[in-house]
Each structure stands twice: as structure tokens, then as C-alpha cells.
């Protein structure tokens, strides 16, 4: 999904050309281009103001769709500077010095067509508000965010990607109330925060959940009951032991990629037929019994590999206490395996 989002974004940007605008708009856009920025004649919808050591946002031309302001010294998100950019779709403010107080009231809400907002590596301690309801991607990683105000995502049913990794979020911040309104969420990244329990309140649309580098010790028995589309789950670098994983917790027909590296497991957890990639490296596993972990009785499998059987293709077990050779029953069960790392 992440790859799909990247590819679709590149296609969207590459489609921008002067042919999309009347000549008089192109001329007006180029004439209004701030002296601190670069406005390509071939792509007049795009304005590059990145890496210019800017301390304030210059007045941006009205026909701008894509605005790049990353890697500057900006500390205020000015409503005045963006007042005329009613067509803005993409705003990149990564690597600046914007604080909560620096986000002027109404500066973001007025951008009613904004789809992508990037404010990574700033000085925010909370989610900026109000946000435009049009947003599809919100990237706020590596700030100092410790709270999510209740209702901040109200009405944001278009938001598909929420990236909050590398902040200071605790369990009390990520709740059903704080995430209310994200009815279309697909990918959520809460890695490198201060979580001790699995986050609550995720919508049923969630497909990708990244929780690496937290302090999670267990997964509640019914946790995935209301997450029927879960396909990519990452819990690397946590504190999960065998007792923290209910027996059939990963029995999810939609799951494709499961990552549990750098935990405290001594056994391979059970997983369903659908799983294709399993990362269990750097745990405390001593042996792997193919008969026990096979999703179906080995005797019921056909002689040839096929899609009706287990679909595991990649298995990583290095950094454990397992010694080769691999047991033959593992090979018999997982006949689509292309790589086993020990």
C-alpha cells in the first residue's frame, strides 16, 4: 500500500504541466513567483522554496498546487502567506521549527483542497487544528507530540495515512475518542512512541499498523476482532513474550506480513494460511516444529506447491538459538518458501 501511495503520488506530480493552465494563469503564476523560490515554466503549478534558509513563508502565487518548504528555519505557519493558495494540494514543511503556537488559526483550515500535509521534524507537541477535511495523508513523524485532542479528526473520513512515529505518545493519548472520525484510515504508524498497550479505537478499515520500538508486552485476545482488513502488522523491538500472545491471535485471513523481531518469544506463534512474510529474528526461539506451526495438517497437503496451501514465502529466524539443519516437516508444509534466514 505504501508503494502504491508513492507511485500514485509520483504520477500525480508528473502530470502537472503548463498545458493544465490557461496561458494568462501561467504568466501570472510565473510573475508572482517569490524571489526566494523557483517556479519551473514547464510545471507552473509547482513552487520550490526548499533549502533556502527561510525564516518566514513568502507570499505564494494563487495557482500553486504543490508547495515545497522543507529544510528551512520557518517557525510560523502563516495564514497570510497562504491566503491566496486555495488550490493547494500538497504542502511539505518538513525540517523546520514550527511550534504549536506557530500554527496560526485558520492557516490550514482555509486550504480546502489540501490532500497531503507533511510537517515532519518540527517542534509540535500536539496535532495541529483545525485540519482541512480533504486531507488524505498526514505525516507528523519526529515531533514532540504527546497528545491528540479529542475531535481533532472529526469529519476527516478521507484520511488514509496517519504517520505519528517518533513522537511521545502514551497509552492515554491514543484512544477511541482521540481517533474518532478516521473512518477511512488505511495505514497508521505509531512506531517509536511510549505505548505499553495496543492502541484502541482504530477503524475497521485499518490495513497497515506499525508499532515498532514501543514497550508493548501483550495483545488482548479479541484485539483484531474489529480489524478485519489487517494485512501488515509490525511489532518489532517490543517486549512480547509467549504469554503475551493468545494462541490464535494472528488467525486473520487477511494478514500477509507479520513482523515480531527483537522481542522475547521462545516459540513460533501460530499463523494462518494467508501469511507470506514472517519476521521472528532476534528472539529466544530454540527450535521450530513444522508440524506444530503448519496452518493445516501436513497429511492433507497435496504433493505439489499450490495457492490453496500455506503461502509463506519468507521466514526470518536469525538471532535466535536455532541450529541447522531445518526440519524436513517445515519444508513439507511451506512449499512456497523461497528464503529461510537462520
Care to describe what's here?
The protein is largely without helices or strands. About 10% of the residues lie in helices and about 10% in strands. It has a domain at about 1-125: Alpha-Beta Horseshoe (Leucine-rich repeat, LRR (right-handed beta-alpha superhelix)), CATH 3.80.10. The chain has helices spanning about 1-15, 25-30, 290-295, 330-335, and strands at about 45-50, 65-70, 90, 115-120, 135-140, 160-165, 185-190, 210, 230-235, 255-260, 275-280, 315, 340. Strands 1-2-3-4-5-6-7-8-9-10-11-12-13 form a 13-stranded parallel beta sheet, with no helix packed on it. The longest helix has 13 residues, at about 1-15. The radius of gyration is 24 Å and the shape is elongated. It starts with a helix and ends with a strand. Residues about 5-20 have low confidence and may be disordered. It is found in: Secreted, Extracellular space, Extracellular matrix. This is Keratocan. Its main location: secreted.
Using DSSP, what is the number of strands?
13
Query: Which strands sit side by side, in order, in the main sheet?
Result: 1-2-3-4-5-6-7-8-9-10-11-12-13
Spatial extent as radius of gyration: 24 Å
- What is the CA-CA span between the terminal residues? 28 Å
Unreliable residue stretches = 3-19
Mean pLDDT over all positions: 91
Provide the helix percentage. under 10%
Q: Helical segment tally? A: 4
What would you call the structural class?
A: little secondary structure
**Could you give me the name of the CATH homologous superfamily of one domain?**
Ribonuclease Inhibitor
Instruction: Assign the CATH class of one domain.
Output: Alpha Beta
The best one-word shape is elongated
Tell me about the largest β-sheet: 13 strands, parallel
Strand content: 5-15%
What is the CATH topology of one domain? Leucine-rich repeat, LRR (right-handed beta-alpha superhelix)
Order of helices and strands: HHEEEEEEEEEEEHEHE
What CATH architecture label of one domain applies? Alpha-Beta Horseshoe
Main location: secreted
Family: Belongs to the small leucine-rich proteoglycan (SLRP) family. SLRP class II subfamily.
Keywords: Disulfide bond, Extracellular matrix, Glycoprotein, Leucine-rich repeat, Repeat, Secreted, Signal
Subcellular location: Secreted, Extracellular space, Extracellular matrix
